[in-house]
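Researcher: Please translate sequence to structure tokens.
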Amino acid sequence: MAVAFHVGALVMLQAMLTISTFAPEREDLNLLSVKTVQVSHAANGAAGSSICKIALEEHVGFKRVWKYSNGEPPVEWWQNLEDLEDLADRRIAETRVKVAQNYGVDFMILSITGSTQDMKDVSDGTSVKKFKQWNRKFFKQISAANDASGKPHLGGFCILPLWDPQASISQFADCLKLGSLGALINGYDTSNTGGDFNYYITKEYDPFWAFVEKSGKPIYLHPREAESKGFFTQFPEMRVSPWGFHVETAEHVLRFILASSTSFQI
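Model: Translation complete:
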């Protein structure tokens, strides 16, 4: 079975996307080109022009989310997780947004950290309900934080229960109504797979990808650590950002491309 691969709609590989996609309500951010976005410094209180910056993969996390996911965050994360429990907290609106502005970041796209999407148990439907609750809380708080700062500086990518393609369609549709700018998905999923890697390229995922294409919204493919074999068994530290993230993400893109070819049957 060949899986359709819609390049424009499916995958965004940690690249800068256009303001028109992510912040259409920001009239002060004028799109001048696809790759380079310039804005009037009037928006920043100064004369002239500068490059506009959009921060991607700005992760947030909730302690209650980690409780249901595979693995644990590093110990030093817990204090920050406490701070991120409530995005609508006045400190978030007044500090995080203000720091972003000070460093020339005009718009931040938040996402619930990718590691938490891998669930310990998805057998009874509880995890699907949890994802729905977390997404609703997430976008409600983004809206509250924007209201507190007086300007829409924050947007968000939703998370999806991709072990269940049909539930993912329903949740993506719901999140788009809540203001989601797209979805952030893991490079692979091992929820209830017995350790096998699910790359979302089998026939069951055709309706999901068709919905994504129709929505016109991007999917952000979030890196995961490379499989521990060969080179990575000797140098495990390289499984993540120094090298493994890039290898794993590149191979996943190739999986999409090859699965869409009639020469390969999945």
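Researcher: Any highlights?
Model: Residues 31 and 37 are 6 Å apart (CA to CA).
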